[in-house]
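User: Sequence recovery, please. Input:
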């Protein structure tokens, strides 16, 4: 598949009730292993990519270095690749657009883009984040690639245990992000069965849930209408734990 075909295929994989499963990778080797296990697409986890190179999450890994890693992944697998691009490495819309253009040049067909202010506090206002999403959509259009922009909101992390209070804001953000050109809506931190179902019914975009403690089973998420399930840092943590145990056996 060429890049445009991969982009089209990736979008088609987001089906309400038959979710795309993304077992997140962190380098070319892990991406190849995940693909050989039967994955239909490859997604990175920013946490895992950073940790594998000795960095903290939150855009601590230099952009140029992250691009090298992403480029190797996209080159080494014949599958759609989506990148956890955090906040896009810039608060300036022009620079953000340039960063997106370079990712597309690497062969990427999707991104996660979050509304947390990574070099500040809290979340971007709805209007500001919508403008940022608009800049991304414009950059992708100029490249003639239908980039799948998975708009992530951190409202459920912000509200902690009182997730019900965050639902109205999440719905408002989902509508604004869709109007700005988002392709999907990502709600990490939400674990309550009923609230996930409520969002699946109300949000027009394909809904993405991240596996974490307390999240319903994949089977249940499918019945609720989720269209995408991500594993985030779990694959990297599991792999490193397994490596450590094997190393202990070898070194004892």
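Assistant: Recovered sequence (252 residues):
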């Amino acid at each position: 598949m060429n890049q445009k075909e991969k982009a089209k295929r990736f979008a088609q994989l987001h089906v309400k009730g038959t979710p795309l499963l993304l077992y997140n990778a962190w380098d070319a080797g892990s991406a190849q292993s995940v693909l050989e296990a039967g994955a239909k697409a490859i997604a990175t986890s920013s946490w895992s990519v950073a940790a594998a190179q000795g960095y903290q999450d939150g855009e601590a890994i230099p952009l140029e270095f992250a691009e090298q890693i992403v480029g190797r992944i996209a080159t080494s697998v014949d599958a759609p690749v989506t990148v956890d691009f955090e906040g896009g490495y810039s608060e300036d819309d022009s620079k953000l657009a340039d960063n997106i253009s370079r990712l597309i040049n690497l062969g990427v067909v999707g991104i996660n883009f979050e509304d947390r202010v990574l070099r500040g506090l809290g979340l971007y206002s709805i209007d500001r984040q919508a403008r940022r999403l608009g800049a991304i959509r414009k950059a992708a259009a100029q490249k003639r690639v239908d980039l799948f922009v998975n708009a992530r909101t951190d409202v459920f992390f912000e509200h902690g245990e009182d997730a019900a209070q965050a639902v109205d804001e999440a719905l408002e953000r989902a509508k604004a992000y869709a109007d700005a050109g988002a392709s999907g809506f990502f709600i990490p931190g939400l674990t309550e069965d009923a609230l996930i179902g409520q969002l699946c019914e109300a949000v027009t975009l394909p809904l993405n849930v991240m596996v974490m403690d307390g999240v319903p089973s994949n089977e249940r998420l499918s019945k609720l209408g989720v269209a995408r399930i991500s594993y985030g840092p779990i694959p990297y943590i599991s792999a490193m734990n397994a490596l450590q145990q094997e190393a202990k056996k070898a070194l004892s």
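Strands lie at 20-22, 42-43, 81-84, 110-114, 148-152, 184-186, 207-210, 228-230.
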